[in-house]
Amino acid sequence: MSNLIIGASSGLGREIAYEFARNSKNLILISRNLKDLEILKSDLEIKFKIEVNVFQLDFSNLNEVSKFILDNTKVLEKIEGVLFPIGMMKENDNVKNSNDDLISIFSANFYSINFFISHILNIFEEKKGGFIVGFGSISGAIGREINVSYSSAKRALENYFESLIISNLKNHIKVQFYILGYLDTNLSFGKKLLLPKGSPVNLAKIVYKNLNKKGVKKFFPFWWIFIDMAIKILPFSITKKIIKFFN
Amino acid sequence: MTKKKIYSLDKNYSADIFFKRPDKYKEIEIVSSKFDNIITMGSCNSYTPASFRKNALSIQLTKFNRIIEFDKNQKLITVEAGIILSDLFNFTLARGLWVPQIPGYPTITIGGAVASNSHGKSCGFHGTIKKQIKRIKIFHKLHGWLNLSNEENRDIFDLTIGGLGLTGSIVEVQLRLEELSGNNFVTKIIETDSSNDAVKKINFDVKKETYCYSWNRSDSFKNFGKGFVFQNELNVSSDNKLTKNIKLNNSDINKNFIINFWNKYSVFFAQSIYQNYFKFFKSKQHEESFQKAIFPFIGKEFYFKLFGKKGFLESQIIVPFDKTEVFIDEVETIFKKHEPLITLYSLKNFKGDQKNLRFENDGICFTFDFVKNSKNLFFMNELDKICEKYHLTPSIIKDSRLKLETIEKCYKDFNRFKEEINKFDNKRIYKSTLTDKLMI
User: Fold this and answer.
1) Is B67 within 8 Å of A42 when comparing Cβ atoms?
2) Would you place residue B320 in the very low, low, confident or very high pLDDT band (cuts 50, 70, 90)?
3) How confident is the model at residue B239 (pLDDT cuts 50, 70, 90)?
4) Chain B residues in contact with A190 (beta carbon < 8 A)
5) If pLDDT is split at 50, 70 and 90, which confidence band does B205 have?
6) Which CATH architecture best describes the domain A2-246?
7) Which domain holds residue B365?
8) Is the predicted pLDDT of residue B1 greater than 80, yes or no?
9) Contact B52/B147 with Cβ under 8 angstroms?
10) Is the dihedral of CA B164, B167, B173, B179 positive or negative?
């Protein structure tokens, strides 16, 4: 049995791969960057003596994802669980995005994940077990001026995972969803941020520890729950004024 | 792109730089394409400004820290250049293998060790890291990805080892590993009464695999050179197998206290305590863990912090064996005259052929740490004159104050190295504050 990590070549995905490897779990790693995946595979196999398989796949292309699922049915039948530490942002993602940008951002951050899970669910239902872990973003809490489509897709993903948790409350499929604030990855490297960054290593440990729990929805770092609550409690008319004041 | 103010470890140089820490191979290419001036950064533990330059891009490769290949039978390991020594050794030591030519602090990256042609305490026996490097992969903005070895791009391979990062970003390194026959070390402490006595006791048997260095007093002319020689030998008979794992201290070596605590009284006090501790309380022969013998600075980071915000200066000079007596004589003369404030004075053996800008030669390596003040700067200028007079080898990577004039006189290949670099990188993309000072 293997564990499938989508978006494993860098950031959080890479740390999750190490956490699973430390726990002697075999892995299937997927990412757009084959060179990075192959190096990660070597390192994991040399250090932890586990079996690692890698596949190059671009989640921003739904057709490619669909073809991968068709071509690798046997591989997918043997997986224990699937994790989606994946996210794609584009420069100049604002309220006026091109069709191509919209399709790729929404595919990578929502459609392809949704589509992939739909197939995996059939396998897990048949096996009467399995886990699915998704990662949202605090950026989905409210509309914004930058990363507009990204945050919209993450908001949709949160909604989808809530549905997934609710739909699987009575069976053996375990679903986790983490809403991420600032993480200490290369995307936030060197940036001066208002709040401290969370460690992806710690998050990977938490994810692994919670694998057997059903229906987890958490914020990481935890203090983002209070910000999220504040945003949701305040009427939009007031939120709008606060944003205007800070701009 | 992030902008950041960054300091050399000795705190003598700082610059506002653009900073990027990629974690994908493609990203190295993308970020490199956006800048005309680039330099690669490891852990930023270099005493000198070797990994940054004002308004240039520093590419930090600490996320490139993985093991790509390992062949235990052939004793070969291929790693990404951002792997730090402690991570590399925690893997290899468990398999009875290691690289002996490593600098004394475990957070230094392999890429940094290659670019500075690092050495360890056994450099009189093992030479420098150059001996262990089989292959290097670099990325250069103009030349793309290049494999370097004695068989492929040999000239660039030679320029890259100890080449201060001027041939591009070192991304992968294949190293020949050596067997480590013991589990820990036996340390012998031998008392010395002068610098000349320390030289004799250090240079006792260079054919033996000994990790040998001295600690000498420098607080006054009367005490100058008194101290100890530490001889670490591998302890083959020891059953203690738990000593090989390297544990990092959380202390940030780059962060200093606000004020300088070193003055002639504190140096006298610290050196007296240190000497008396080893003289009266420490056994003359004792077992030491791998970590303590090879990385003695772990847990002693406060030594650097005590220099305060103004920082320190270090001078490291290789003196050929036949010139050690005259060198010590000259140093003692200027020491008596100028009374510099030297916080650390140490000797070790060295072996190698001086080529390009590599800090290598056969002889004794003298190390002095100074508080940064005008009296000490004057003393160091006098040391430069001694280096020029006797054609000694001062370290470029340790002494950020070292003048171009001295380097030109002491490094016979300096101009040829400069020409070769200009030929390879005619747009001079890869530069640092250090190499600006050298006008390369």
Assistant:
1) yes
2) very high
3) low
4) 2, 4, 19-21
5) low
6) 3-Layer(aba) Sandwich (3.40)
7) 184-404
8) no
9) no
10) negative
